């Protein structure tokens, strides 16, 4: 059986300094898995929306390999990396040798809330996320599901998920 990877220094730094879920480690693992799965669903919806827009407005995407290359290297898709990196960070915590702590869960939950609350988000992600919300009803539905999932996981609320 392969050894579990220890979270990277970047993963450790990104999760420092945020709130706690206040649940036991098994509950934390379950919450992190739910958070990961919810964020993956949102990411897929955003990727589908952005690739359809790219395909229509910029150039035809002819294969999954081409799409992967675009997502990894084309500036058009770069804004999605922040969400991708959060999912990877959750995976690293879940795959770590030591079990995730309630503090880990709280930090990641707070980071997800901050990223997905349009009023709280800043920078390039916020700009493109708001555009996707305005353009695509599937993104609106996925956002609503993500906010509901975040609210169900408890912890501190943002303005966006208390409405």
Question: Any overview of this molecule?
Answer:
There is one protein chain. This protein has 163 residues and is mainly α. Helices cover 67% and strands 0% of the residues. It has one domain (24-153). It has helices spanning 9-15, 25-57, 64-73, 81-95, 102-116, 123-135, 137-152. The chain is globular, with a radius of gyration of 16 Å.
Q: Features of this protein?
A:
mainly alpha, 7 helices, globular
Describe the structure in brief.
By secondary structure, this protein is mainly alpha-helical.
Which helices and strands occur, and which strands form pairs?
Blueprint (H helix, E strand, L loop, with lengths): L8 H7 L9 H33 L6 H10 L7 H15 L6 H15 L6 H13 L1 H16 L11
Radius of gyration: 16 Å
Q: How many discrete domains?
A: 1
Strand content: under 5%
Please give the largest β-sheet.
none
Low-confidence stretches: 1-24, 157-163
- Element-by-element helix/strand order: HHHHHHH
Q: Which term fits the overall shape?
A: globular
For the record, give the distance between the C-alpha atoms at the N and C termini, rounded to a whole number: 46 Å
Helix content: 55-70%
Strand-pairing-aware structural class: mainly alpha
Work out the number of β strands: 0
Number of helices: 7
Mean pLDDT: 83
């Amino acid at each position: 059986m392969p050894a579990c990877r220890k979270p990277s220094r970047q993963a450790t730094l990104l999760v420092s300094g945020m709130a706690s879920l206040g649940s036991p480690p098994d509950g934390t693992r379950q919450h992190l898995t739910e958070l990961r799965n919810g964020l993956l669903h949102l990411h897929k919806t955003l990727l589908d929306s952005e690739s359809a827009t790219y395909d229509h407005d910029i150039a035809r995407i002819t294969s999954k390999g081409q799409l992967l290359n675009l997502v990894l290297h084309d500036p058009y898709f770069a804004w999605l990396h922040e969400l991708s990196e959060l999912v990877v960070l959750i995976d690293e915590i879940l795959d770590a040798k030591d079990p995730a702590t309630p503090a880990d869960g709280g930090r990641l939950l707070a980071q997800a809330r901050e990223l997905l609350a349009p009023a709280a988000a800043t920078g390039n992600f916020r700009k493109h996320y708001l555009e996707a919300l305005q353009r695509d009803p599937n993104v609106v539905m996925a956002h609503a599901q993500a906010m509901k999932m975040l609210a169900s996981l408890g912890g501190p609320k943002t303005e966006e998920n208390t409405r």
